[in-house]
Specification:
Length: 309
């Protein structure tokens, strides 16, 4: 059997996995709701059984996860996961599969995926922004992924953009991910004070998704359009501040919100340019991921596993 590595992307909503060869081709993949597993042990057991026929070909495992710590191999107090506390994920999978395991932040994994296989192959300095249940960032400076002192660099979703604002799962208030994420878009339906709300379809009492909001915005719903503008402005303003730290050539948007077309990326770009320090103006690109269909985080986690080998 062709040698492969197992790349796993653990998100607040879904867990995606794929078997990846040395050329970056995913030969087998799957996805399952994160809520399906009451513990990380049950997830490891399930994947071990699901991949039984492939285990002889798997050489190593790479895992991208919220608050995944590259140095310790653990998930540390991830606010958007049901599994609480410190979880020794690398040790758990290593014992179960009997092979090397690398764990990193899911946004870091997406950054590696973009750099090796995606829209950052021409870049030495960039930041991936993952827009899912929460918001994460993977920072690459001079072709090096930044992990930080103890593995937690890039928690950009928990920079406070509105101090005293929306409650965040991390225990603080006003974090960026409570405004610029799929869940942030949904919260804006109820929490954004707007006179346009009463005449909007979003005033109906039903379970809306972020995709619904973007579709309604495209169809001309004024309140949905206001939510999209507010989300883009909040994210763009935050990216303008972040540029002072890492001086990126590009931000690469990845995840559900980023798939809503070039209009959203353009709105983020315009909001960012309006807030940038003049030495950075008109120098930073906003790109969208080229790997939505392939899952950049799975490919990135797999890349880390190949590198370890």
């Amino acid at each position: 059997m062709e040698p492969v590595v197992l790349g796993i992307d653990i998100g607040g909503t879904n867990i995606a996995y794929g078997l990846c060869n040395k050329d970056g081709k995913i030969t087998s993949s799957g996805e399952v709701p994160t809520i399906s597993f009451s513990s990380s042990d049950k997830m490891a057991d399930s994947l071990f059984e699901t991949l039984a026929i492939h285990r002889g070909a798997i050489q190593a495992i790479g895992i991208g996860a919220p608050n995944g710590n590259f140095h310790t191999g653990s998930i540390e107090f991830a606010p958007n996961l049901l599994w609480k506390g410190s979880i020794p994920l690398g040790e758990l999978f290593g014992q179960k599969f009997g092979m090397p395991v690398t764990v990193t932040n899911d946004a870091n994994a997406a950054a590696i995926g973009e750099m090796v296989f995606g829209n950052a192959q021409d870049l030495s300095n960039f930041v991936t922004i993952t827009l899912g249940t929460g918001l994460g960032s993977g920072i690459v400076i001079d072709e090096h992924l930044i992990h930080g002192f103890d593995g937690f660099a890039g928690e950009f979703g928990h920079i406070r953009v509105f101090p005293g604002g929306r409650n965040c799962g991390c225990g603080r208030k006003g974090c960026l991910e409570t405004y610029a994420s799929s869940t942030g878009v949904i919260r804006s339906i109820k929490e954004l004070d707007s006179p346009l709300k009463m005449s909007s379809a979003l005033n109906e009492n039903r379970d809306w998704s972020a995709l619904d909001v973007f579709k309604l915005a495209d169809s001309g719903d004024p309140f949905a359009q206001e939510i999209v503008r507010f989300t883009a402005k909040t994210l763009g303003s935050a990216l303008a501040d972040f540029a002072c730290f890492s001086n990126p050539k590009a931000y690469i948007l990845f995840g559900g919100i980023a798939q809503n077309g070039p209009e959203f990326a353009l709105a983020v770009k315009e909001a960012m340019e309006a807030e940038l320090l003049n030495i950075y103006q008109h120098k930073i690109e906003i790109r969208t991921s080229a790997l939505h269909d392939q899952n950049a985080a799975v490919l990135g986690a797999a890349s880390l596993a190949w590198k370890q080998l």
